Each structure stands twice: as structure tokens, then as C-alpha cells.
Amino acid sequence: MIAFAVPAPVLSVRDLRIAFGDVEAVHGLSFDIHRGETLALVGESGSGKSATALSILRLVEREGGRIIGGSVRLGETDPLEVTRLASAALRDLRGGRIAMIFQEPMTSLNPVMTIGAQMGETLALHRGLRGGAAREAARAALDRVKIPEPERRLDQYPHELSGGLRQRVMIAMALSCEPEVLIADEPTTALDVTTQAEILKLIAGLQRELGMAVLFITHDLGVISEIADRVVVMKNGEKIEEGRTSEIFSAPRAAYTAELMAASPRLGEGAPAPLTAPAPVLKVTGLTTRFGGGMFARHAATVAVNDVSIVLGRGETLGLVGESGCGKSTLARSIMRLVEPAAGEVELLGTRIDTLAPSALKPHRARMQMVFQDPYASLNPRMSVRDAVTEPAILHGIVTPRDRSELAARLLERVGLPAEVAERYPHQFSGGQRQRICIARALSVRPQIIVADEAVSALDVSNARRITDLMAEIQRRDAVSFLFISHDIAVVERVSHRIAVMHQGKIVETGPTETVLRNPQHPYTKRLIAAVPRFGGSGDRQPEPFVQVELA
């Protein structure tokens, strides 16, 4: 007789409770992951996703948290209780049996160590490899994740690699010891769609090769629908819903899950209609920006922006899309003279600003403001919100210090925050709230143009939706123009009247959003659109569960 036994999970979390100070951040969370399975953990910022991941590796203590209840067990046979391990045993566990890929590879890698040296530390600790053996193993790990010229990369530093390559290095390090469990915490959030597609394909392929269990943390439901077998939905530290991916997407049981899905942008939902001959507020002609070069430089100059021309109309949003490193942010900074262009013209409201001296440029800076990707890094942690949002207005002489509090109250209320938060500091706000504060600061000088450089890419879907809705409201009310830079094409479609596609420093295609996305002409545009995750939970990924067959 043949009996089919239900396999034991590789990782089992039971009634996990996590606290930061007196605040309980995770309340009684339970889930299992089996060999070869991908479980996605999804929820808004602050839901407890990352705290859960850090607790599995017992890293939450380093972030000021602690496990106050529950268990984390690793292993199919004779499971190991992670919550009771001593420091020495934890060192063997981390990177050995459980590995983690973090969201931001630049801050996860040591900037003063070469890639080879950093990988060598892991290989020495967990596999006992040193010298030439460690270097060969590191080279093989880089080759496995399809990094070109792996031998040369070993001697490079993190800043010499693109974001996509740095993330591949992190994956190579995580997988170099062939872990039983891989935790991927927002590993593709900062990546463009083509690089994201490559990274997801890479993780899935290595998972099949090694039989790993994967805990994948993300706020991108499109990614989840493509890569996850099962989904756990979290809200305020609690599990709201759990089930197979196809079931969750086709028939969510919890209202919160349905709200998350409704807030998620889907390519093809439609774009704002193009404006009819809006008056131009920004004209860029033949703009070129170079980095490096010169008489004593080791390498020739790099052309980051190459002969770019764009026009932005009053009350219009122009979406700028393209892969990491294509020149989007450099173009934006060159337009604003945060980076000096080498050639071309920038005309703002009828005045050429590319040739102005700094003193003459200052009045024009009030007309064009910028909102950056990371709202926390954009705000002075020692400056109150009242001072932060009114600082540009003070510098430009729009208000006096005496009127500062009144202006702060008006700006905060305009972006949907109560006036009484003006005396708080940036660390006391969520990511979405901090981005609202950055928008309030930009609005303090009554600009005609706002450059939003990946302004919602680090936010969960609900907060991103609120921020883009706020931008649309500001545009309707004051006819503000937006240059909206993003790698998320579905978000760009939602907010942009027109799109410009950038590739290797050049604009390769531009036109009304609907036209470009429905009927792309350039091969690169077609490749970008094809790489966008298809939201919807079709259930394409339905591998057979691992089943152990016992003869009786």
C-alpha cells in the first residue's frame, strides 16, 4: 500500500510576537514554508513584514526590537528552535542555512571592501574556503547569477556597479552557501521593470536548482501574482488572510486585501487625456551632460544625457521612463542646474536658465521644485516639520519668520496632514506622511513645475496611490506641471498625459500615454512594456506540492 505523507515545512513560524519598546508590532503570526515553495508576505508599510523577516534571523534585536513570544523552527527533520539560539549558533545560521536579500544593495554592501573580499568573508565563515579557493567559489557564484565579467567584478567596489548588478551580487552572496531558506525583503522595489524581470527569473531558476524555500516580501501585487505559490496578507502586525495566490487574487475574503488590490496600478487601466496645446512652461533643447574625462582622468568621459529635447506644458504631466542608468535622474538634475550640462538649452517660462550665474538663477529656482525618492533622506532629521516645509519660502523671501507657523499650517492641511503635527520631527512619521511633507515643502514657493524623481517607488501601494492622487489634485487646483520620473510604468500610465521613453541617455520615443503604451514603435519601448508584471493572479505558477512517498 502506498501512503502519501504531508511533508514537514522547512520553516515554521508559530504565534510570533515582536515588540519595539512598549509597542507590540507583530501579534501572534503563524505560517509555514515548504521546500521549493515561495510564500509572499504582503501589506502596507508598518504592517510588520520586515520585522518578521528580521526576527527569523534574530536580527530584530539590532533594530531595537525583541521577540516576546512564539517560535521559529528551521528544518524538516529535527527542527532547530531559532528563538533560543546563542550568538555563536546564530552566526552559523545566518548566511548558511538561512540567507537574506535586503531592499537596498548599496547600503547592504560595505562601500570600502571589494566584492570579492565581501563574498570571501561569507565563504570563509560558512564553507571554510580561503585564498584561491574562496575567490574561485565567489567567481562561480557571480557567474551563476549571470553577472558579466565575474572575474573583473571581484576586484570592483559597490559604487562601480549599477543597482541591478549590486542586487545580483547580493543574491550571489546569499546563495553562495546554498541555504535552505531565502528571505527576499523588497529585493526589486528600487529596480526598473526589465532588471526586475531578470532578478525574479533568476531567483525562480535558482530556487528550482537548489530546492530552496523562499519568503518573498513585497508591496507589488503584480510581482506576487507572478512568483508566489501562497500569500500571507498582513495589517497592523496581524495576519488578515492566507491562501494560494490564484485564490487570493480571484476571490479575496478580507476587505483589506480587496483594498490593496484596488490601490495597485495595473497596466492598461487608462491614462489622462492629452491636453490641447497647453502653453509651454519648460523647453529643453539638445541637452547633453557628461561625467568624468579631462586631462588627468583615468577614463574617458561618460555621456549620461545625449542631445535630449522635451517640452512640458502648463498643467501637464510628462512621464519619463527607462531602465536604471539610462539618464532619467541626470536629465532632471541637469534641467534644474543641480548638475551642470555640457551643452544644450533649458528655457523656463520664457527665460533661458542654463546660462545664468548662480545669483541670477536663484529667483527661478522657486518656479521649479523637486521631490526626491527617499523622503527621509530628503528631510533634515534635526529640523521640525514646521521649519522644513517653510524653509524654501523663507530663503526666497516669500514669507517672514513671523508668518512661518501660519504658512506651515496651511501647507500641511493642503497635503492632508493636520496642522498640529508641525512641531514634530521626520522620524515620527511614516514614509507616506514624510513624502507629503516633502510635497508641502515644494509647494511653499508656489512653483509652476514639480519634478518628482521616483517619488512613490519606495512606498506601498496604498500610500503611493494617495500621493499620486494628491499630485493630481494639486495639478487640477493650481495648474502645476509635473515631470514624473518612475520605473513603474503602470503608475506612469495612471498619472501622465504624455510619456517620454529614455534609453542610454537618449529619448527614443515620446507621445500621448495611451498611444505609446498601446502601440509602441521603438523596440526598447516594446521590451519595457513586455517586462511589466501582469497583475491579476491567473494562477500560472501552480507547481505540484512537494510530496514524500512512503512505502507501507
TrEMBL record:
List the catalytic activities from the record.
glutathione(out) + ATP + H2O = glutathione(in) + ADP + phosphate + H(+)
User: One GO biological process from the UniProt record?
Assistant: transmembrane transport
Where it sits in the cell: the answer is:
Cell inner membrane
User: What CDD domains does its record include?
Assistant: ABC_NikE_OppD_transporters
| Cell membrane listed as a keyword | yes
What is any Pfam family matched here? oligo_HPY
Please list the residue ranges annotated as the ABC transporter domain.
11-261, 282-529
Might you give the EC number(s) for this enzyme? 7.4.2.10
SUPFAM superfamilies recorded:
P-loop containing nucleoside triphosphate hydrolases (SSF52540)
Q: Which GO terms describe its cellular component?
A: plasma membrane
How does this protein sit in the membrane? Peripheral membrane protein
In alphabetical order, the GO MF annotations are: ATP binding; ATP hydrolysis activity
Q: Keywords in UniProt for this one?
A: ATP-binding, Cell inner membrane, Cell membrane, Hydrolase, Membrane, Nucleotide-binding, Repeat, Translocase, Transport
- Database matches in SMART domains: AAA
Q: What does this protein do?
A: Part of the ABC transporter complex GsiABCD involved in glutathione import. Responsible for energy coupling to the transport system.
Family that this chain belongs to? Belongs to the ABC transporter superfamily. Glutathione importer (TC 3.A.1.5.11) family.
The record's NCBIfam families line, in alphabetical order, gives:
PRK10419.1 (NF007739), PRK11308.1 (NF008453)
Protein name per the record: Glutathione import ATP-binding protein GsiA
Source species of the chain: Seohaeicola zhoushanensis
- Give the lineage: Bacteria, Pseudomonadati, Pseudomonadota, Alphaproteobacteria, Rhodobacterales
